[in-house]
Batch of 4 targets.
Target 1
Amino acid sequence: MGKISYSIVDVFSQGKYTGNQLAVFKNAEQLSEHKMQQIAKEVNYSETTFILSDSKKNDGYDVRIFTPNEEVPFAGHPTLGTAYIIQNEIIGEPIEKLTLNFKAGQIPVSFDNEQQILWMKQNNPTFGRILDINEVSDVLNLNTEYIDGRFPIQEVSTGLPVIIVPLKSLQAIKKVRINKEKYYELIEHTDAKAIMVFSPETYSADNNLNVRDFADYFGIPEDAATGSSNGCLASYLVKYRYFGKSEIDIRVEQGYEIKRPSLLFLKARDEKRKITVYVGGQVEKIAQGEWFL
């Protein structure tokens, strides 16, 4: 019987057992796509990653990401968690940066080893369809008065598309209950299969926004911390000048409603119609072991 080594980390954490859980498997090149999907389903975290080899290819490390239901081309917390494992368990010493090769392209990650924060530079955003407020409110089981009509409900992508929904208050955030029938009706006609709602009111006075992310399509009813969607959110915030300016450097809280409090750092700049996006957070190693194949 063969075996493969793996580690478990909490990403965008505020200490152990916070943030978003991730299982990272090393030297996984011998695994078939079917076997990777079976393992990801068994682990049943929002995502599981597979580092194909300890060696670089095209100046980066080849990585595949699976939700419990399917492979995805890019995701945020798997990027930072996997980079952390590569630095600590493959390279074995502090470094300044590395690159991960995903299906969505190359994603560079930099390390602030003093502050213990990892940063990923996401792809330039694309802005897609604007959705109807009534249709989305039905999905959220939320009266339209709780949605901030000053800003659009829109599909945004930096590698994995999401529907961004601006809400007015923390009360609105707490009221969201996904109507699964309406949700699946909606995503039949959208590129994005996840929905992120956000509010300017927060649980912690230190933070700038509270967010929730729902992705039943991927087998994730609600995510504890979503780096890809938060990168899309950062792009949205500067495009529409949500804070009244073309550049942001903010703290975002997520996961409070499912008892996995998470903290994400967002930086974005809209300069001459080109938006650059960085998403950062801390990573905490929880466990390691061997998986029998």
Note: The CA atoms of residues 136 and 206 lie 30 Å apart.
Target 2
Amino acid sequence: MILVTGGAGFIGSNFVLDWLGGGLEPVVNLDKLTYAGNLENLQSLAKNKNHIFVRGDIADSELVSSLLNQHKIRAVVNFAAESHVDRSIHGPIDFIQTNVMGTFNLLECCRKYWGALSGLDKERFRFLHVSTDEVFGSLARDEPAFTENHRYEPNSPYSASKAASDHLVRAWLHTYGMPVLTTNCSNNYGPYHFPEKLIPLVIHNALKGKPLPIYGDGQQIRDWLYVSDHCSAIRCVLEKGVLGETYNIGGCNEKANLDVVHTICDLLDAQKPRADGRSYKDQITFVTDRPGHDKRYAMDASKIERELGWRPAQTFESGMAQTVQWYLANEQWTENVTSGAYREWVEKQYVGAA
């Protein structure tokens, strides 16, 4: 079996669904079910005997150790993380606790478990740590994309906490010989994305007739990766990755935030026009930029293509079309996750746009 941490969150739940949909090994899914963890994401697995869900914290060493030993785990895929930059600015302690201390505890439990294995079981064990491009900091428009050897320059409490977790994984490799792999991905989008992030927030607000909040001038550039492509890349790294190596995973789709919002509006204009016949673009509202907002991220994913043969299957256009279609077909899912607490958060964060 494999242990997936954070498997009720956006990327983690997509990975679990993708993994089990492909007929692969059973999954033990450990998730704390904070605001971004949602069991509705996994509803289709309710009667699947190959999915064992456990509510719990990766910082709980007794629980983690018991799961590793009870289920004879052969690989751990660590998605568990606090991941929203804005939330990290307002409350960094949760990010340190989960992303740093949680990863430390997970590594220690796995080190002890792996150390007690023998033979083929020990040889096959893997610890795959899922990280982000934000650990590398910000790029100027004319700078080359991040490679795996780019210097770490995190600029937010979130990215600093993820950088720390990456360094812990590297240290456990070099100090203890742990069989680790690390992936750094660009911005994901797709089904089950919690609607505090740009794409699902814009879709949700557009359909509700609310302002579409854009930070600053909207010219911040990100590389967009469709979540199913990310899942396939992780499977590829887990299967074929060289121990100790880091692999960048990108979508090869650099877009300014404002262009992303325009694309969403165009798709909604075509698929679910406003009753008054006007474009959803009329709802765009520019709000004060957040502190320390990185201007550009871009990923050089040539290593994973060259060494492991992986490439994204979706273009930005095809991935966005599928994403908008999913949200239009699953408006009830969005309604269910946008609780009162969520609405209070958005109103606090996007002052003047609510």
Note: Residues 218 and 257 are 5 Å apart (CA to CA).
Target 3
Amino acid sequence: MITEERNGQVLILTLDNPARRNALGMDMRVSLQAALERAEPDPEVRAVVIRGAGDHFCAGADITGMNVTDAAGARERFRISHKMVRTLVKSSKPIVAAIEGWCVGAGISLALCCDTIVAASDARFMAGFGKVGLMGDLGILHLLPARVGLGRAKQMVLYGEAMAAPEAERIGLVDRLAEPGKAFEDALACAKKLEAMANLPIAFTKEFYARGLDESLDIERSYQPTLLLSEDHKEGKAAFMEKRAPRFKGR
């Protein structure tokens, strides 16, 4: 699910399920977490690039695997997922995301966990959590306003509308635009610059900016399980699978 390769002291991690647009299922989250944990103590890894296989970065969570039946199971799901988020954000290694195609829902959360976001100029972003009866998760409610401001973050997560990469770059969601098909090449160039820098200042800077994340994730772990067990989420999943508009009833 996650493939690993090296380019000098840059570790390249690829979300490798192009048939499902690299949907971020639990297996992929665990695999990504394991790869990051292996990299953390390795002095030969000075920077990381995360990309998606095929034409897209990540289509969000794998909705076919969201079969939560009780609160304990839902909380355990987020304990595992939040371990990945914390590792990404608090890693001593600088992490660069390379975005091609769609970056949706949990895919945006994953990109926001990275330190630099490079996107192809024809990439698209959408925080469509509400369309399946859920709130934003995997840290997006903390990380997105830190990048784009509270007002813009609200518009993205409340309306769930698609956003083109140039607009994402204008508001600060994206750091650098690349030519279509060149996001990885440009992301690798960024990682190479970071590879040559002193590692301790980067680690300390990341630790400083990670303040407040734990509290946000704890609240998320309290709220989102309730929504996962709601009738509206069941309806949202059914509507998504049946390719129709959902009929939410507020319960």
Note: The radius of gyration is 17 Å.
Target 4
Amino acid sequence: MLDLRAYRVKEKSIAVVGLGYVGLPLALSFARHYRIIGYDINEDRILALQKHVDPDGELSTDDFEGTDIIFTTQLEHLAQASTYIVTVPTPIDEFKKPDLSALFSATHTIARVLKKGDVVIYESTVYPGCTEEECIPILERISGLHCLADFKVGYSPERINPGDKEHTFTRIMKVVSGCDEPTADFLAALYGKVVEAGIYKASSIKVAEAAKIIENTQRDVNIGLMNELSIIFHSMGINTHEVLEAARTKWNFLPFYPGLVGGHCIGVDPYYLAYKAAKLGYHPQLINAGRLMNDNMAAFVAKNIIIALINSGKDVRQAEVLILGFTFKENITDTRNSKVADLVYELQSFGVKNITIFDPHANASMVQKNYRLKLASQYKDRQYDVVVLAVPHKEFTTFTEEELKSLLRSPYIFFDLKSVYFSIRKNFNYWSL
């Protein structure tokens, strides 16, 4: 049933369902060794991929060369696969609850073409138990087949880090698991052909799901601690950056830093674990506290911008604010769960009307659609009362002191959230997290 040789000689093919930040690099890496069917319901995305263009800007045309892959929205093409890898997004909804609609939709689609002997592998981030308690029953109900007896299911959590050119798909150790030992072995061999960094075989699907969740929950809690320390140190008149630089001289100090925590992983995954824990009757205190702290940091920054404007004698309602960067982190196009949007909304709630947002990487139409905010096409045509370096894209990290001052009216109020220009702070009315 689980014969890897059939995939190596391309008698059988693999479908990757969902071709975004996770699915596309996985599909192209696999397509150098196996026959791949790249499936997505977004027709515009498929048309771009057929032209060897990554709509997310993460991969170049060269990354498509030497691959055995077709890109399709057609169910009949999907039906030709024997293994299905699900890489669709699993965000949260407006109430910060897991939104599994894309996952369930993909599962329904696969179930319609599922055959005896097929394998379904989930990579999407979920809470422990979701694959076996939610997805497998859907596969069984719609296909009329039975897991273990007729088809197999595995889970291998994605570890894609957008914008990271060092820790790419093939260079990150891969955790795999299966509904039984042969399936786990099959996943280990399947991914092992592609992933250079090695394979770790988890003892169960739930263990693999939990491992993924705590990777980002751990980071979220640690950043939450740094954000709380930043608030405390600001009230003491101490610069957090200086404190952290001093503390990190100890060999076992963990180098976490304060910041706006957005994106589709750190700002989302802890809610999945908290949701599942609450379902079981336990309300996690530390995880929820970290989430609350990080979700409120945009408000903290906005309040300090208003204070800086008032202290400088400026009219908040007439002040012009420039915000540099909108994506959830530097040098990527991904604007999902952008906390810069929260910063803008907070400033608007204080009466700030003149806000210019510039980001050379973000898609202006997507920002308008998802956040009802307009990105400027340029920003150097006038001066501002405050400049906020929110996301340190490479385009924003090489300003000279004179260039920064040319963007500002005196006094030079500069909010450098990640302390990029800490060395010249004394020449500005400077603030950093």
Note: The mean pLDDT is 96.
